[in-house]
Amino acid sequence: MTGMLIDKYNRRLNYLRVSVTDRCNLSCVYCVSPIHAIKKLPPEEVLRYEEILRIVRIGTSMGINKIRVTGGEPLVRKGLPEFLNELAGIKTLSDISLTTNGILLERYLEDILKAGVRRINISLDTLNRRKYESISGRDGFSRVWRAIEAAHEAGMNPIKLNVVAMKNINDDELADIAALSFKLPFHIRFIEYMPISSHSSAPELFLPYSEIMNRIKTLGEPVPVAAEIHDGPAVRYKFKGAAGEIGFIRPVSHHFCDRCNRLRLTAGGYLRSCLLSNDQIDLKTLIRNGENDDKLKSAVLESVQMKPHRHTLGVIPDYRAPAEMSCIGG
Ligand code: SAM
After folding, report:
1. Comparing C-alpha atoms, which of 329, 310, 304, 328 is closest to residue 62?
2. The CATH number of the domain where 67 resides is what?
3. pLDDT digits (tens, 9 = 90+) for 267-311
4. From atom 25 of ligand 1, which residue's Cα is the shortest distance away?
5. Is 262 in contact with 7 (CB distance < 8 Å)?
6. Contact present, 98 and 137 (Cβ < 8 Å)
7. Which domain holds residue 111?
């Protein structure tokens, strides 16, 4: 029998997002600054897999049953498939998913499938090879598209494509990307750009949900899809007769903090109860100081109680969340 993690505002937290590395093989404009280099953690400061597994096991005994592995780019970390395998062995976890940019996905697809991961999110912000390079810093579009096709052929389901909608960058393509859902059974998730950290790119990139939707409605009127058990914060729609669906994640214009069920473990071993707040608990030091499970459980509870009522992006003018996506994991 596992416990339950309930915060001060009566939200039940059952979902842990684990950033396994702060390193990435891309440098996307929404994540990395073109001006300031974000200092990478020295290897010894990154949680070891066995340390992450210990935290996950403790989390599951307290009510976590859902995990997403993210980064940085999780597939750049050596031994990731074996780590996924270990996660899959934790029987109290009912859902393990992976977020990747897809660059290394084809190479590791078989191993990821063997580990039992079927739910995958792949970041793809454009269908144009040149634009892909200008957004991500790498000529990787064809490679990612091949990986998406391979994942589909191998039976991964659902395949979610994460698209960060950005003004004057990919807003001219949002309808074309949404149109993929007519023929392909993918779930295409349009994400409002969040101005994160002083290092991150400009707030001028922000495009609100209403404008994202307006661009997509040029294809027709999408029909709302009923919510399901694995649903995250996305509001879901489908075009009539389409194989796939589209969804919108609107952290700025329609925050979903009242329903937020997430905790995040950073690559450096900090537990955060809100992506957009810098309040965090240092689990790595506790583990490396030899603290027992009870001590770690108390630290998890402390983090849960720190979870803010809501974030302030979009409330305080020009506010930028003091966070680094590459370390925390998006
Ligand atoms: N490397 C992996 C990838 O590219 O999918 C996982 C890490 S990445 C930080 C996870 C997700 O965060 C991506 O899907 C990206 O869309 C989202 N993300 C990163 N920075 C963002 C921002 N400033 N606003 C909105 N979404 C962002």
Report:
1. 304
2. 3.20.20.70
3. 999 999 998 888 899 999 999 999 999 999 999 999 999 999 998
4. 193
5. no
6. no
7. 15-328
In ligand 1, which atom is closest to the CA atom of 194? 24
Q: What is the mean pLDDT of the chain?
A: 92
Closest CA to 196 of 24, 35, 37, 324: 324
Whether residue 10 lies inside any domain: the answer is no
71 lines ligand 1 (CB under 6 A): yes
Residue 210 lies in a domain: yes
70 lines ligand 1 (CB under 6 A): yes
Integer Cα distance of 16 and 275 in angstroms:
12
- State the average pLDDT over residues 5-20: 97
Instruction: Give the burial class of 167: count Cβ atoms within 10 A of its Cβ; 0-12 exposed, 13-18 middle, 19 or more buried.
Output: middle
> Residues 6 or more apart from 64 whose CB is under 8 A from it?
5, 13, 14, 15, 16, 56, 93, 263
DSSP designation for 41? P
Strands in 235-238's sheet, in edge-to-edge order, are: 223-224, 235-238, 245-249, 187-192, 159-165, 119-123, 95-100, 66-70, 15-19, 262-265, 270-272, 280-282
pLDDT in tens, 104-114: 999 999 999 99
- Provide, rounded to the nearest whole percent, the portion of the chain with pLDDT above 70: 91
Query: Residue 21: CB within 6 Å of ligand 1?
Result: no
For the entire predicted model, the pTM comes to 0.94
| Pick from 25, 24, 26, 54: nearest CA to 265 | 54
Q: Cα(218)–Cα(229) distance, rounded to whole angstroms? A: 30
Q: Note whether residue 4 is domain-resident.
A: no
Count of the separate structural domains present in the chain: 1
Residues 247, 269: Cα–Cα separation, whole Å: 31
Phi, psi for 118 (deg, rounded to 5) = -120, -15
Q: HSE on the CB side for 219, CA within 13 Å?
A: 23
Report the DSSP beta bridge partners of residue 192: 165
pLDDT recorded at residue 285: 98
**CA-closest residue to ligand 1 atom 10:** 330
Does residue 6 lie in a domain region? no
219-227: long-range pairs with CB below 8 Å, 24+:
219/175, 219/178, 219/179, 222/246
